[in-house]
Amino acid sequence: MTVLWWVSVVSLVVWVGLAWGHGGFWRTDQRLPAVDGEPAVWPAVVVLVPARDEAEVLPSSLPSVLGQEYPGRARVVLVDDHSTDGTGALARELAARTGGLELTVTTPPPLPEGWTGKLWALRHGVGQAGDGEWLLLTDADIAHRPGSLRALVAAGEGAGLDLVSQMARLRVASRWERLIVPAFVYFFAQLYPFRRANRPGSRTAAAAGGCSLVRRAALERAGGVAAIRGAVIDDVSLARAVKRTGGRTWLGLADRVDSVRPYPGLGPLWRMVSRSAYAQLRYSPLLLAGTVAGLALVYLVPPVAAVAGAAAGSWRTAGAGLAAWAVMAGTYAPMLRYYRQRVTAAPLLPFTALLYLLMTVDSAVQHWRGRGAAWKGRTYPRPQPHAQPQPHSPAPAHTEQPAEPSAE
């Protein structure tokens, strides 16, 4: 019990450090920057929607994009990435029925070696963007509430930003979604604290690929989409490329942007996470082992110490475990409130973290079996070094948010 006490004390110290000294990762106050007024001249915007077999969700998302009211010139380019379910035809039908912004549906050439499907689709879309000064990269399963586009552009122009990204509010309808989705965003914020990522000069850079407004000139300065062509975790790679070339980036939680993609059971959520979790660890067995150990120490030791200590009558062990568990739950509560979930569910975070640990291990196993980074009939090999993401903490490996994989 002495060893468990020491380990629980270490876990408690780590949690206190995370809560007070890790960029306020647990706070949910990073929303669109407040700016004075609106642009005198609204810049031209092109909305790029990569889509592969998205007929199921398109009726719930595309009309909201086409219906955006924008004071300047704006149009939508949907890149139908060789869908087999009539995605392109459905998009045209929805545009004819909805009206609003002009829609262009286009199909890219066959996917070349070294590219992920989504990024190849986006590259093709950028080529169709004409003179758009801003490009809104938004997934086919993302719905935009009224005023979303206008608010994004106003924030980008008013705050002098080059990349404005919002993490869409993901669906939490099913029991598994309520258990896993808020934790997904919480873990992402722990890996990439929003406040730190938004600080000019900080080495931390991150974005949410489901909704990223990027200045055309900044994207070109960063080398265009080709600079990250092999990235499985493309949102973070894009933010790094823009920031590395002197651009200013911003990431926060969304109030007007929602994912409509359903994940009704554990299986779809598991595949969503495990398909690219190992990529976050740079396909390194050593980093995988460190991540597993870190997860166990930070998330699993507190409840084990609390229960085992109480059962054995070691109240100092139980106390240390309970204290660490309480800090953990306290930092998770704001994310649950953001997702309109009961904060009484916060103590369940260790169980969710255990699931993420198993998903990360499964991601490595699938990679070793040659089935890693697979999505919608495509399996991607290990990306080139320039596109590989860098982990920042022992938290669960980040993958694209659930709204991301529309064109992979």
From TrEMBL:
UniProt keyword annotation of Chaperone present: no
Biased composition (Pro residues): 382-394
Chain positions covered by the region annotation Disordered: 376-408
Protein name (database record): Glycosyltransferase
Gene3D superfamilies (UniProt xref): Spore Coat Polysaccharide Biosynthesis Protein SpsA, Chain A
Signal peptide: none
Cited InterPro entries: Glyco_trans_2_hopen-assoc_HpnB, Nucleotide-diphossugar_trans
Membrane-spanning parts: 281-301, 313-333, 345-365
Domain of life: Bacteria
Keyword vocabulary terms for this entry: Membrane, Transmembrane, Transmembrane helix
Taxonomy of the source species: Bacteria, Bacillati, Actinomycetota, Actinomycetes, Kitasatosporales
